[in-house]
Amino acid sequence: MRTVFFLSLTAAASAWVEKGVSAGDEEVAFTASLRQNNTEWLEQEWKEIVADVKGPRWRAFRTIDEINEKVGASQDDISEARAWAHAHGITINTAYPDSLQMSGSVSAVKSAMGSVLTLYTFTNGKVDVVTSKNTVKGLTLPPSITSIHGLYKPTIVRSKRAVQRSDVASISPQTIRQQYNISIPTASIMGNISVGQMSFCPVSVDDCNQYCQEGNLNCKLDASSIKGPHSELNPCGEADMDVQMGYAAGPRVPLTVDGGYPNMLDWATSWFNNPKGALASSLSYGDNEGAGDNALNNELMKLGVAGKAVFIASGDAGAPGQACVGKFKPDWPATSPYVTAVGATESTPGSAPHLKNPSKLCTDRVGPCVGKGAEEAVSVKVSQFTSGGGFSQLYEAPTWQADVVNAYLSSGVKLPPSDLWNKKGRGYPDVAAFGGQNLVVTKRIVAQSGGTSASSPIWVGVWGILNSAALKKTGKPLGPAAPYLYHMHAQAPHCFTDITVGDNICPDSVTNCALCHGFRATKGWDPVSGLGSPNVDCMLAFVEKDLQ
């Protein structure tokens, strides 16, 4: 008997309603992570190929086959896991070198894993899921299986669907391009980007194309660019928003929707093993850091060593993490040292004029859209939430951010009580972008929305533009964003807009803020807005010069 944590990508379960204990014949899907080999080699490759910007092996990316050959499970472990599944009537649907995606009846899964497992059925009104309520200990598993994914709590979307504010001007594609100095390239774009989605979150082709058309964007989504579910009758606002924000920043960057996954490990594993997979992707899901997740962390590291950039929304519950009780609950996987975590900003009220000659997106169904102006961290007062940000309880600050984190800690800015957070941890977010009052089309209706879920795909659109420049100049992508962005900031801080106003003390508008602690924005990097928001034309010039 061993302890195994069921890990997934869940947040508050308020969107899911429990229907009761699952019947024995209901089917449940999950993923078994297998024992990996040579993870020390993988860590060293990350350090030399990704983290050591300007080192002799920087961007000497490894192929999928090279990484799998080194890190994949042994044939003995694969055979043992397959035999275990077969003996209990569990079906293996997809096999990867270090994980197996499985499904079986509730009775078969309980037989395989032990009587301590109780599974429940939950519904969000659209789909049902079978899952446990809590982390389960004492499961009976073969030594070859290190963790199980997809059976702990229902998967919850991370976005904060903003309350409509008629008194606050909206953020349109024009706003984003003006604020971030994005000159749309006229030449062809090399490379591609994607937005990751879960199985219960379908995108609408019509919604996204209405956004492109009414926002005066040269973009178009078609069904051939979508992996996973799409629906015109009942789309998921999160999926629509992710695609549309990616288009807002990089309308000519080829974009695909990479969806249909029951858990985040399946998303990362499928992306890594796809030879035609995107060079950069954004994911807007998360959970409290909790016990961590070695299998997913290693998969994120593999993606980086293969030259892929992972952008993750930093969460919408401030530094406390949903409840201002006890130690802070950092957001996972935003705290992983192998991703770029993205926080949210808002246009400072009254700092900018309304757009001149706005697109139909602004004038048709909502109030005015704001032009270029001052930017601040999202606030409870304006956007009804604050960005996830702070310091990991599990992962140390990586070398590429150590200097700016130390500068923040010694800056004299007021810090929360030291017993609530880990000052030696990996700081997040890394960067930020608009995530309050962003215009989004869902079910053909234009409305304000937001969250760090809006901010992260803006950055993946930006990265698509920068990657294209790198590909044209060197034939290789830039790879994972965070180490390079810190390198860029050290050399050219003017390529970022420093966000110095705001905090992430109170999670949202329904919390008693008097009980809360958090962090404050200040000059330079901070755990509210990271390095700041992008100046894309400046960044393009830097990349062109830096890669000579």
Structural class based on helices, strands and sheet pairing: alpha/beta
Mean pLDDT: 87
How does the major sheet shape up? 8 strands, mixed
Shape: globular
Short description:
The chain is 28% helix and 20% strand. It contains 15 helices and 24 strands.
Account of the 3D structure:
This protein has helices at about 40-50, 65-70, 75-85, 105-115, 175-180, 205-215, 235-250, 265-270, 295-305, 360-365, 380-385, 400-410, 450-475, 480-490, 535-545, and strands at about 5, 15-20, 25-35, 90-95, 100-105, 120-125, 130, 145-150, 195-200, 225, 255-260, 280-285, 285-290, 310-315, 330, 340-345, 375, 390-395, 425-430, 430-435, 440, 445-450, 495, 535. It is α/β, with parallel strands linked by helices and about 550 residues long. The longest helix is centred in the last third of the chain and has 23 residues, at about 450-475. Residues about 1-15 and about 155-160 have low confidence and may be disordered. The strands form seven sheets. Strands 9, 10, 11, 12, 14, 16, 17 and 20 form an eight-stranded mixed β-sheet that branches. A five-stranded mixed β-sheet has the order 1-8-3-5-4, with helices on both faces. Strands 2-6-7 form a three-stranded antiparallel β-sheet, with no helix packed on it. A hairpin with a 2-residue loop joins strand 21 (about 440) and strand 22.
